[in-house]
Design a protein that fits this description.
The protein has 143 residues and is mainly α. The chain has one domain. It contains six helices and three strands; from the N terminus they run H-H-H-H-H-E-E-E-H.
Amino acid sequence: MKGQWFLISAVLATSAFLSISLVLKDYFVTDASDIARGREDYYLWDLRTQFDALVQESSCDDMEKNLNGFIAFVRNRLWESGYLGYIEYDKTQGKTQSYAYDCEEDDPVTPPNERVRNIEKGLLVATEDAVFYSNIDPDDVIK
């Protein structure tokens, strides 16, 4: 009779410990895949690529209009997905000869479609979990 009570108490104790561990499992296990579920870094690098492509393909006359339209589109799309998207660029760099972005029409050396265009830009993509940024101070954007 003692052996039966030993087995019954062992089964009860094991089931009690199992049920306690199942209830408390979420408090002790860290989910390493949680980081991989975020796409903030993908959005940041994709925005950089698309911004550079837009600068290369835009004419000098339409540059500011195209960039402002792109920024408005990005903000709306990221906001719909639950992200804060912020892009700023230096509007004066395209007007100066000293910078790589050259809009002068009378350049006899380089055709307009082969000129180097590089506008300094600041990008930020943020959620409540993470902030990714490039060439911008996030404390100035997120207050």
